[in-house]
């Protein structure tokens, strides 16, 4: 069992979907990652920042999941990062209606002493300089550094992003972003190009079309579970990353075979996340529901053609 | 081992992709279906029509694959159906540059006597009245009737299409067409609606994103093999259908488990089809290459999470 260090946003989200809308609710990449990873019963810590408008009930929720929040800075008089977005009917595209960086604008991450030897580091979607700063604070090279990012950082901070990518083991990125980062339309070629940039493993997230894991000449695919309804996609990618990182930290095994399992666990947890607004579904999820759905994943993908 | 009856177009195609272009080459749904199904070493027959401009070398190719072409009418003085299309850079969209129905305009299908008791009938993409006429000529109800169709028939002959759908067991259709046919965006809901229309099994083809098989509350997913390059997608859907139908006829087993295997075999063959123009790759494909790629499909999808 390894320790998992998480860096990412802790935020307020306001979400509008065809099914309804929310006021400010709990959100942020680190929040979704932490809640997903906590399903594996491990020791984890979040490095992030909020304002003093952040409710203590949310802090208590994180603590109740055995998440160390000593690295979650609360800025007195500051306001928490806020994102407001609206999803279109197909749920695959969204408009950002508001982004208020607030305390995130001056965020200087401080890794808690206890987590400077964490075996697994999950760098959630955030400014690449912050991601790099966390890596530089580690006492020894973690066994596995996983980075999630998005097109915004490619558009605005490509140099910093390219630098941090050199220092990581796994990148999780969506299909369009993989194409943007490499100029290759074929995901096979894009994944090969990205491996040349640093990471040994490339996970390409395709939303409702599943996720691909690439490593040298190996490739593994996990479908997304076909759902009757996607209620709110917010946090699904972070939940995938949290399940992936959490499973690897909990099992302390970074073989390709175990990374395959991690992709399945990540996809499994993400399939719950989208069933309700924000973190709602992740808060009341239990082990039994998770196991039941893993059986569905097996039924969905496993076949028995005999081969020599 | 069952017999497989195939109805569909036998045609000339002229194809333009970012990689090059062809003159008139061998094409047509029944051609691709027949070539794919022949990999399973079964008895099959094609019901279709061509003009006397159709080269005897193409006829010989079909015969060499143990495909009975006594139901392939050659119209004296007639011209073979011709389609010309151009694919865009992403290979997912194409423009039809020319469609010359020619002898297809008056096609009246005649099922050979020997195949009126075929166990499996594969109705390739074609006018639904022709598909229905073939069903009506069968001496006894086949064990399995599979239908492939496309949005063109929904736009222009919805009533006839709806009627033939009532008489079939399996429909293969792409994701957008499933949505168009049912008005449901969720593929899970669309598949449930289509099952109410007649077919017990619904296969939704998602191109590079794989294929889903639905039956009651069961669902199975086969990914498309991630390829470095898709050279020419023409015929990939037909090849999938041919592999699916051919495997089921050859194994004479229509359990859900065997339909899963059939979806994998169909996806496997389709992954070859797109590697070269038209039927080129399907012509020189051998058993060894097919088996090798089935191993890749296993590696791509099989995982070993132990569950209670």
From TrEMBL, chains A, B:
Keywords: Kinase, Transferase. One of its GO terms (cellular component) is cytosol. The keyword Kinase applies. SUPFAM superfamilies: Ribokinase-like. Gene3D superfamilies: 3.40.1190.20. One of its GO terms (molecular function) is kinase activity. The keyword Ubl conjugation does not apply. InterPro entries: Carboh/pur_kinase_PfkB_CS, PfkB_dom, Ribokinase-like. Residues 20-281 form the Carbohydrate kinase PfkB domain. PANTHER family: RIBOKINASE, SUGAR KINASE. This is Sugar or nucleoside kinase, ribokinase family. It comes from Kriegella aquimaris.
């Amino acid at each position: 069992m390894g320790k998992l260090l998480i860096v990412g946003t802790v935020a307020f989200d306001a979400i509008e979907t065809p099914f309804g809308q929310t006021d400010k609710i709990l959100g942020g990449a680190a929040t979704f990652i932490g809640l997903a990873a906590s399903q594996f019963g491990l020791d984890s810590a979040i490095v992030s920042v909020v304002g003093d408008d952040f409710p203590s009930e949310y802090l208590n929720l994180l603590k109740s999941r055995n998440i160390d929040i000593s690295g979650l800075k609360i800025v007195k008089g500051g306001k928490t990062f806020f994102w407001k977005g609206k999803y279109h009917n197909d749920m695959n595209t969204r408009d950002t209606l508001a982004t208020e960086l607030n305390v995130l604008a001056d965020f200087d991450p401080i890794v808690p002493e206890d987590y400077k030897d964490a075996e697994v580091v999950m760098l959630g979607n955030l400014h690449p300089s912050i991601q790099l700063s966390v890596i530089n604070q580690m006492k020894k090279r973690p066994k596995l550094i996983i980075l999630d990012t998005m097109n915004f950082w490619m558009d605005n901070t490509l140099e910093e992003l390219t630098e941090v990518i050199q220092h990581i083991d796994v990148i999780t990125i969506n299909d369009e972003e993989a194409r943007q980062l490499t100029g290759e339309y074929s995901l096979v070629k894009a994944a090969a190009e990205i491996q040349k940039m640093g990471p040994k493993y490339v996970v390409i997230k395709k939303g409702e079309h599943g996720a691909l894991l690439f490593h040298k000449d190996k490739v593994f695919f996990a479908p997304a579970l076909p759902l009757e309804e996607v209620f709110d996609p917010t946090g699904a990618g972070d939940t995938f990353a949290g399940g992936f990182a959490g499973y690897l930290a909990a099992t302390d095994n970074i073989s390709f075979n175990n990374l395959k399992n991690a992709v399945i666990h990540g996809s499994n947890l993400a399939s719950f996340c989208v069933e309700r607004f924000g973190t709602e579904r992740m808060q009341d999820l239990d082990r039994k529901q998770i196991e039941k759905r893993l059986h569905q994943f097996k039924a969905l993908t496993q076949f028995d053609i005999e081969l020599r």
